[in-house]
Amino acid sequence: MNPVKKVTSYILIGLVIISTIIALLGIWEFIEIRDLLFKSLKSVFVIFVAAVIILFIVAVVMREDNQEKENLP
Question: Cα separation of 8 and 2, whole Å?
Answer without folding.
Answer: 10
